[in-house]
Amino acid sequence: MFRKVLIANRGEIALRIQRACADMGLKTVAVHSEIDSNAMHVRLADESVCIGPARSKDSYLNIQSVLSAAEITNVDAIHPGVGFLSENERFAEMVETHGFTFIGPTAEHIRVMGDKITAKEMMISVGIPVVPGSKGAVNDMEELRSLCKEMGFPVLIKAAGGGGGKGMRVARSLEDLEAAWRDARNEAQACFGNNEVYVEKYLERPRHIEVQIIADHHGNVVHLGERDCSVQRRHQKIWEEAPCSALSAKEREALGELVATAIKKIGYRGVGTIEFLYEDGKFYFIEMNTRLQVEHPITECVTGIDLVREQIRVASGLPLSFSQKDVEFKGHAIECRINAEHPETFMPSPGKITEYLAPGGYGVRVESALYAGYSVPPTYDSLVGKLVVTAQTREECIARLRRALQEYVISGIETTLPLHRLLVENKEIQKGDFDIHWLEREFLKNT
């Protein structure tokens, strides 16, 4: 087992990893930008190293600075967290080359799954169904027109590299196609440095369902059930649940077994998430995330398994501490993402926290690095907290969430807490009757 771990991230996810390390008796090193010198993850780490100015490219995305911090603090391993360098195959390779352990999958699996085209090809080869679409990148309009006429409209043009809803455009007719293709390519180039796009059939009312897996160096693969991440805005998740209320027990078991078998075939190790669109009783693979997910706490709540602890154990070479037959799914969990944004316009709202009070009580968990007096910087992702509740049934879970949302106080900045307070009262949410377009199609236009 490791002695000391460097956490190459910031905010609530860095704090989450720190706590897991502390529970395991491991020392931690926090890296931070100049603007993050007073951040909670820096204050609570055993050691900290400033790795550059505020801009991500000069600090959290600066591989040389992160590795230098690892060398001067003499760590054994580096945990990339979520975002930043967590799915950067070059970083994973360099971590290992410099004699540290990368707490994640192999660089090769990051590379393959980081490109949505090669990821689809690999999933097809191991029996996972995919959304109908192009076999590779589409590089000219004539080819695109031909494919779309064959598939039928509407279609979705997507960036081959990257994610987070960037580089994606819908075309509902031939007249829309050229502008959608051009805009998707331009955004993909700007966000990911790669303008390759591909096209697939656009599903009108699918749910977004993902399966959590974990695999070790010894050939053991376990799935930890599914999460429903269908409440989204601009392809960004806002509200997540486990399990998905739309699936039957038979569908749930079949999907989990299908994914676990596929992951075993490709020889994957570490945590990972296989994401699907689900419509009319059919699942279609869309991508694999080769890292910890923001929404991992709801899986922990319904399984009782500490995913970060297991992730660290696996990276150290230990086998999984449980098998598939040991996994029991109990109750229901919901996570609300709290962003530093205006709840109606979704404009970023950085600034100083003047008052902070997290909700508590049985079945309530808050993942946040906020505190009164802390200044949320304008430089990074707007996620400032995750409110997670769990209960025996979905109905009880929603009732508990309502209470927790009323207790939660964040003053000094705008947040999306008011949006979640509206969502929890919505009849469609209460019935579980939504899809990935529902929030923008039905809810936001009426609020």
CATH topology of the largest domain: D-amino Acid Aminotransferase, Chain A, domain 1
Tell me the overall shape.
globular
Overall residue-averaged pLDDT value: 95
**First CA to last CA: what distance?**
52 Å
How much of the sequence lies in strands comes to 25-35%
Structural class: alpha+beta
Radius of gyration: 21 Å
Largest pleated sheet: 8 strands, antiparallel
Give the low-confidence spans: none
Number of domains: 3
In short:
With 447 residues, the chain is of the alpha+beta class. It has helices at 11-23, 40-44, 63-73, 89-97, 107-114, 116-125, 141-151, 174-192, 249-266, 296-303, 307-315, 394-407, 417-423, 427-431, 438-443, and strands spanning 4-7, 27-33, 47-52, 77-79, 101-102, 155-159, 168-171, 197-201, 207-215, 221-233, 236-242, 270-279, 282-289, 332-339, 351-352, 355-357, 364-368, 375-376, 383-391, 409-411. It is globular, with a radius of gyration of 21 Å.
